[in-house]
Design a protein that fits this description.
The protein has 512 residues and is an alpha+beta fold. It contains 14 helices and 27 strands. A hairpin with a 7-residue loop joins strand 8 and strand 9. The longest helix is centred in the first third of the chain and has 26 residues.
Length: 512
Amino acid sequence: MDRKGESMPRKLRRRASLVLSLALLVACGGGRGVAQANRAQQPSSSVQQQLGNAPQQANTNIAQQLSATFRGAAAKALPAVVFIQVEKNASAEADEQAPQNIPEPFRRFFGIPPGGGGGGDEEQPVAGAGSGFILDEQGHVITNNHVVSDTTEVLVRLNDGREYTAKVLGSDDMTDVAVLKIDPKPGEQLPTSQLGNSDDLSVGDWVLALGSPLELQFTVTAGIVSAKHRPLSGNPSNLEDFIQTDAAINPGNSGGPLVDLDGRVIGINSAIFGGNRFVGYGFAIPINLARKADDDILHYGHVRRPQIGVSIRSVTEADAEVYHLPRIEGAIVASVTADSPAAKAGIKVGDVVLGVDGRPVHNNTDLTTSLAQHQPGDKVTLDVWRNGTHDPVSVTLGEFSRPGKQAAASKEKHPVEEALGFRVEQLTPDLARQADLDRTSGVVITDVTQFSGAQAAGVQPGLLVEAINGQPVKTVEDVERIAATVKPNSVVSLRGYTKASGETIINYRARR
């Protein structure tokens, strides 16, 4: 065989080997591609500089433990959180959507633009929503005063879907706290909240905010305590001692609990900073301050506010120098009311209060909130700085006069509307045309009550009522007779007819 003949297989083998090598390179990304792939797996120099000596494999154990802590706190607190729907008078809602001691930028928490103003003589009720939490098995619910003030209807919904009509037992606009009452059925158990100690909170502590922001019901957000003892209005006479947090809080969270990592309620979400720019801070009423208001409402029907009869302001650097104070802290007595508890105890203008019963007073807020947790008639010992020395002064607390507040007039309802959640009229040719009905007789629904069980279930005006709870309906008197037998919180089975949908059955729970 000649050399030419011998070389051909070798060339073929070399070509085959080359093709195979190229194929492998292409499959793996090629020579340059492999280098690029390797470089792509490494951070660029600028990213590497920003990351520093980042570990190749992160240790997530601590993060997983924190996540488990969040889950545990939410699981403990969430069952007792409630969603609150209310019906308010339009003018009252505009004027009292937030407590008066909170300035205008904060008066957006109820989800309505800030500012007052009313409507015409025939203002329609407006809807509102907020949050709350169940205090005890008797059905007492805590929320904000501005959520339920001047309401005509209050509906409470639990996380498990149970719904109750609530009664406002009492409220306090100074602390923005209100107590509601729902009535569980016999044998029915309610989840309850565990209260913590807001005095134990420190800046930097993790907290969870629970509620129904923007009606996203039963939402949980996390953040930290950003600050404590925040006054909002700048008025030293107001009772303000807010916990500031960066846990996401939005309209609808109002009245919901702020809880610690053990799921204990340490605050009541009450205000947010509003405006044209995102701020990201919310404010909660310390539970220790709210608890006094809750207890008073449950025991007396109103909050008994103690007072000593002075006006005060916080110590400044100049004050500390003039009065020879060791530190820039305390509450200066700016005036004393004649014949007041302070006057009787010998408190004078220019005295600086540095403590109450051994508890330090750093500023005017500390003094007002410390006294507010007592009852009228209690004796307290004030640590008074006078003429460069400490002087303990015993004061018997008086009581602020309680301004009379006219209760909001309840919206009058016909017994049928009260029991069933809708109004009816005997069908006429005109009503039949309006409802697009092809019937000439019967009873038609003309209006559905806001926040009623009927409205929630989808009952709408124009439905021709054929039967209620299995009893045939031919006249308005039939509906009135059946309505008289419907008990609060009982189930109503409504059978009706529309031309568009034909026969329909709607079951819902009565609320009254």
